[in-house]
Design goal:
With about 170 residues, the chain is of the alpha/beta class. It has a domain of about 110 residues: Beta Polymerase, domain 2 (2-Layer Sandwich), CATH 3.30.460. It is built from 3 helices and 7 strands, in the order H-E-E-H-E-E-E-E-H-E. Strands 1-2-5-4-3 form a 5-stranded mixed β-sheet. Strands 6-7 form a two-stranded parallel ribbon. It catalyses: a quinone + NADH + 5 H(+)(in) = a quinol + NAD(+) + 4 H(+)(out). It is a peripheral membrane protein.
């Protein structure tokens, strides 16, 4: 018997109540939001439940929503896969923009180590309990987080670049 999205939703709501919400089917991926403080419990449940068996963390990434209210300025998105039923889910946990932090998943999925480091490196999201949260792609001396929306896309002081070569033209006046 194949695993249906209604089964996933029913089990999650039965176990976690209002901490799981905004269920949505997007093409072949079932998605939902969770309260950030429940991340460890929800992930463990999805992995260890004998029916659900989401035993593979495919991806983990951050998103910055600077126009959202402070409590929802950052999100951590988790993609999980049930190999037995070939079912995929996406979990989104919003976190506070003033102090973006969420618990690490490295004790549940060791593969989360580098994904969390990358997310910290680019968004500044602190993964509480991570064994070695340090820069992975950017220089250690960097003080900013380049994927945040307030980070400038280009250096306005550059003189060695001609916008015509990048598909941007200056309007004739």
């Amino acid at each position: 018997m194949s695993l249906e999205t209604t089964q996933i939703q029913d089990k999650l709501v039965e176990t976690f109540g209002e901490s799981v919400f905004h269920f949505n089917q997007e093409k072949d991926i079932f998605s939902f939001e969770i309260a950030a403080d429940k991340i460890t419990a929800v992930i463990l449940f999805l992995k260890n439940d004998p029916t659900l068996r989401f035993n593979f963390l495919t991806d983990l990434c951050g998103i910055h929503y600077p126009d959202n209210v402070l409590e929802r300025q950052f999100a951590v998105v988790y993609h999980m896969h049930n190999w037995y039923e070939n079912k995929r889910i996406k979990i989104k946990a919003f976190i506070n923009g003033e102090n973006p932090e969420i618990k690490t998943l490295t004790t549940i999925f060791p593969c989360a180590n580098w994904m969390e480091r990358e997310t910290w490196d680019f968004y500044g999201i602190n993964f509480i309990g991570h064994p070695q949260l340090k820069r992975i792609l950017n220089m250690d001396e960097m003080v900013s987080f380049p994927m945040r929306k307030e980070f400038p896309l280009e250096d306005g002081g550059r003189t060695d670049k001609d916008d015509r070569f990048f598909g941007r033209t200056q309007s004739n006046k």
